[in-house]
UniProtKB/TrEMBL annotation:
NCBIfam families to which the protein is assigned, alphabetical: PRK11815.1 (NF008774), yjbN (TIGR00742)
The protein's Enzyme Commission number: 1.3.1.91
Cofactor(s) in the UniProt record: FMN
Region (Disordered): 1-21
Protein's name according to its UniProt entry: tRNA-dihydrouridine(20/20a) synthase
Keyword Transferase among record annotations: no
Catalyzed chemical reaction(s): 5,6-dihydrouridine(20a) in tRNA + NAD(+) = uridine(20a) in tRNA + NADH + H(+); 5,6-dihydrouridine(20) in tRNA + NAD(+) = uridine(20) in tRNA + NADH + H(+); 5,6-dihydrouridine(20a) in tRNA + NADP(+) = uridine(20a) in tRNA + NADPH + H(+); 5,6-dihydrouridine(20) in tRNA + NADP(+) = uridine(20) in tRNA + NADPH + H(+)
Domain DUS-like FMN-binding intervals: 27-331
Coiled coil: none
Species, as recorded: Cupriavidus campinensis
HAMAP family (alphabetical): DusA_subfam (MF_02041)
Length: 351
């Protein structure tokens, strides 16, 4: 089912410490962003960071184009599939498809606060129905042999007491879920946009820490507002893993040190130029199969952020007219050469 394409992936590095959990660092599922091209780019930056798809609804899989939603390159691994839904039978069927297509984990979205998702009776509103979520998890676990995990908030609307999220986690854990990704904010179901829900409700990391203390055998990952290596290191003193969101997208080179810092890898940190050239090769092969260059470069625009000439580099690779005109590997190479002409190599090496 999977298609094999040219990718910037290298072989797994050696020297990884055996006692490190594979989800120690992960990139959050982000709608319209973490598609297969974005994941290929992130994998060029980090060999070991755990990656997630965008949320895929059960309806899209059971009544739509399965290949369009699930196809990915094996070189992106490890990759988890995030599902949106609330019908146990539908989720079980969708999870089985995910396993058949080669995903390493099925994650249930119990954290998205958008009204569109709520109309589908899933996302953060499911936190009010822990028994239903437990049934969904049990159905998926019965259908697949890979891990089934849950991503959730610490509360909904004005419910802020710890007992609410503790009981939610406890109920789902009784159904066999062993991994919980805790976005350490409440979800406000009415009155705030998804963007505002990522910014306005206060972060309360201590809630995730307390969950880990109360459920020491569960794998607890923390998500929300993490933007520095020091913050990651601090969280890892209390929980099992850290999920990075928009910082990984807007400042992608942030991922380049994850393997060395948090997985004990001994491979060299990839240089920006190395990552760019690998993606250039990937894009060349993609457009020769009829793909649109801008579908990939849109995810790369932060690679040289903060570097002298980075704005000019981004301007070339975000020109939609020229992206549409690039229909050959030669055209792709020419655009990248023009983009690189804006960068000063001496400053790039120093960075």
């Amino acid at each position: 089912m999977e298609q094999t394409h040219s990718t910037p992936q290298t072989e797994a590095t050696s020297g990884i410490q055996g006692n490190i959990r594979p989800r120690r660092i992960s990139v959050a599922p982000m709608m319209d962003w973490t598609d297969r091209h974005c994941r290929t780019f992130h994998r060029a930056l980090s060999r070991h960071t755990w990656l997630y798809t965008e949320m895929v609804t059960t309806g899209a899989l059971l009544h739509g184009d399965v290949a369009r939603h699930l196809d990915f390159d094996a070189a992106e691994q490890p990759v988890a599939l995030q599902l949106g839904g609330s019908e146990p039978a539908d989720l079980a069927q969708a999870a089985k498809l995910g396993e058949q297509w080669g995903y390493k984990e099925i994650n249930l979205n119990c954290g998205c606060p958008s009204e569109r998702v709520q109309r589908g009776a899933f996302g953060a509103c499911l936190m009010a129905e822990p028994t239903l979520v437990a049934d969904c998890v049990q159905a998926m676990r019965d259908a697949v042999s890979i891990p089934v995990t849950v991503k959730h908030r610490i509360g909904i609307d004005t419910i802020e007491h710890y007992d609410f999220v503790r009981d939610f986690v406890g109920t789902i854990a009784d159904a066999g879920c062993e991994t919980f990704i805790v976005h350490a904010r409440n979800a406000i179901l009415k009155g705030l946009s998804p963007k505002e829900n990522r910014e306005i409700p206060p972060l309360r990391y201590e809630v995730a820490y307390q969950l880990k203390r109360e459920f020491p055998k569960l794998e607890i990952l923390i998500n929300g507002g993490v933007v520095t290596y020091d913050e990651i290191a601090e969280h890892l003193q209390h929980v099992d893993g850290v999920m990075i969101g928009r910082e990984a997208y807007h400042q992608p080179y942030f991922l380049s040190e994850m393997d060395a810092r948090f997985y004990g890898a001994n491979a060299p940190i990839p240089a920006r130029q190395e990552v760019e050239l690998a993606m250039q090769d990937y894009i060349g092969a993609f457009v020769e199969r009829g793909g649109y260059m801008g579908a990939v470069t849109r995810h790369m625009l932060g690679l040289h952020r903060g570097i002298h000439g980075g704005r000019g580099w981004r301007r070339v690779l975000s020109d939609a007219r020229r992206m549409h005109a690039a229909r050959s590997r030669m055209a792709v190479d020419a655009l990248f050469e023009e983009a690189r002409s804006h960068l000063r190599p001496d400053l790039l090496e120093a960075a």
